[in-house]
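Subject: complex prediction, re-run

Hi both,

The earlier run crashed halfway through, so I resubmitted it with identical inputs.
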Amino acid sequence: MPDKLGFIGLGIMGRPMALNLRRSGAELFVFARRAESLVPLTAAGAIACASPADVGYQADIVFTMVSDTSDVEQLLLGSSGVIEGVRPGAVVVDMSTISPAATRRIAARLGELGVEMLDAPVSGGERGAIDGTLSIMVGGSPEAFERVRPWFERMGRGILHIGESGAGQVCKACNQVVIGHTLAGVGEALLLARASGVDPARVREALLGGFAQSRVLEVHGRRMLQGDYAPGFKASLHQKDMRIVLETAAQIGIALPGAAVFAQYVNALVGRGLGELDSAAIHQVQIDMCGPREP
Ligand code: NAP
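This time it finished cleanly. Structure:
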């Protein structure tokens, strides 16, 4: 019998990921708190459920792709949550970016019922979700990973089992440290060029051909030059990710000063009420710190 799949969280990322599962022919049960989020999925043949518990009851493998740690806790363990419907032998796969420590606690709770949990956060953005080319970093048992792997392959390309429960979320936190440093660095480079009277677009082009080349320079550098901050990856979510990074660092007692600096840029951006913009908009904070400059 082929797996029955469940998917909860049909936002920028979850919608295209769930659609890719459905297009591969999977029987798919979905839940969203806003009816309009369900429309593209039900139009593609997915079955709408009345609650996360109902998704848990129907599906052998339940995917979640929601915003924050508290959302995952509520959907999985809360009232009418997946835990109220799910059966022993099922696998819950959380693909949101949340706290590694909370992930281990949730996995332990589900484990008491004979339900395995994988943490499988992703990188690659909306484009990767649409194209099915996400990088997927997985924590949990190797057996559960192998069971879900064929479905991961419908959503991503770089699919790696990192280690035990929580290891996927730690890997994602590491990813966000690199992205944060690089975003701040790209913004500073463009600022330096502009303030020196040098065309920042030419500088970006030159850097793309050398050792400073990166996807962040390419994609977010372009957004910074054009001032086009349609998300993409919302600054409010990036703020949440940096909170996870810095809380984890505090829990284990290590210093991550570079990550802390980037987190301050994001705090300033979100504090101005601009949390819905793409996080590349931290460049605007950098510009404002230095005063207006001619392009
Ligand atoms: P999003 O567009 O805001 O979507 C989040 C979805 O989760 C929304 O549909 C939201 O429903 C739903 N949701 C949140 N809390 C819920 C709850 N308690 N109960 C039911 N539904 C809930 O965010 P996204 O960009 O798809 O990001 C989702 C996750 O992926 C986040 O953890 C993010 O950090 C991670 N991520 C995002 C990107 C990216 O580029 N966007 C890349 C990698 C990883 P409503 O519509 O009703 O609010």
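The chain has a mean pLDDT of 96.

- K.
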